[in-house]
Structures are given as C-alpha cells and as structure tokens.
Amino acid sequence: MRMSQLAAAADLPVATVKFYLREGLLHEGRLTSPNQADYDDSHLERLQLVRALVGPAQQSIASTRRILAAIADPPSSAHDLLGIAHVAVTPEADPRFVETPRAERLLERLGWGASGCSPAALGALEAALDGLEAGGFELSDEVLERYAHAMMGVAEDEIAEGPTDSAEAAARYVILGTVLVEPLLLSLRRLAQQTASAKRFGSR
User: Fold this and answer.
1) If you average pLDDT over residues 22-45, what whole number do you get?
2) Which of its termini does the chain have fewer beta carbons within 10 Å around, N or C?
C-alpha cells in the first residue's frame, strides 16, 4: 500500500506517519521508485503499536524508541525485560531518594527482599512513602500489606500468562503489559472506589 493508504488504515495524518519514519519509530517501506515506497501489514502493526505507546501510554518519542528496540532485539533474560518496561513507566529517579531504607524495610517485612528490585523502583516506593508522611496521611502496616498482597496477586497472574514461545513475543507481552496496563489498573482502582463509596454512603 502507498503511504496515504497506510496513514488512512492507521487513522493517522500522513504528516504523522512521515514524522515516525524520520524518528526511526517506523521501518522503511520497499522502494518502488526514487520517491515512492510500498508498505505492508507489518508497517500498520507498528503504527498501531507506536500510537498506543505515545497515546494512551503517554510515552515520549525517546522512550517509545527504546521500547521498540527492546521488542525487536530482546535481552536474553526475561527478567531483564521487566527492567526495560519499568524504566519506561517510572519517572526519573529523584536524587533525594537514592537511599531507600523505608522501602527496603517494607519489602523485607513482606518477605520480598530488595535484591531483585531496580534502584528506580525502590526510589519510587521511597518517594511514595515519603509523600504519605509529608502529607500527614498514615497507612497502617495492615493496609500496606493488603495493598502489597493484592499487587503480588496481579503480578503473579501477569508473569504466569507470559508467552514463552519466542523472545520477541515475551518482550512484547512484558513491556506492553507493563506500559499499557498500568493506566488500566489505576482506572479500575478509581472506579472500584466510586462503587464502594456508593455502596457505603449511597448515591444520587
């Protein structure tokens, strides 16, 4: 298909498709003349993926490029894929939280340990705990543990469902499952809060 047809199929302006080509987010088409190229379903699939990453997942162009590179050339360890996915969705580490004593104590209490966790994820947890304290919002140990156990259940289900037939399929599942599912989890939490509130207090 021509670029105009590709853009129409992806529901994107031609200018956006050209921009993704220039940025290396979309692979080149097959040249049919010096100024014309032909595109196929692989280009459409890539555009749909890029659109999801820069749209609902709110990834930058640079982050999207790293994610696509990891999917195309995944690391040998499936566990390392998580690191790539988490780097994509974790804000840049706050230098105030290089030391993470509270986060590490919480993980030890949960029986998880911190040795297999990335510094960025530990820093994000430390920052979250610091934010709770600074805002005067106290969560009991019991509530924190319920949150953690709920998340572990979600995580175990996700890891168990991961494909093992190919490294590329595993990379796609782990990375996109992290990047695209986190907004879904947040939305479900908020809707669950509204539903629970309506049950407890009634709704108009």
Assistant:
1) 90
2) C
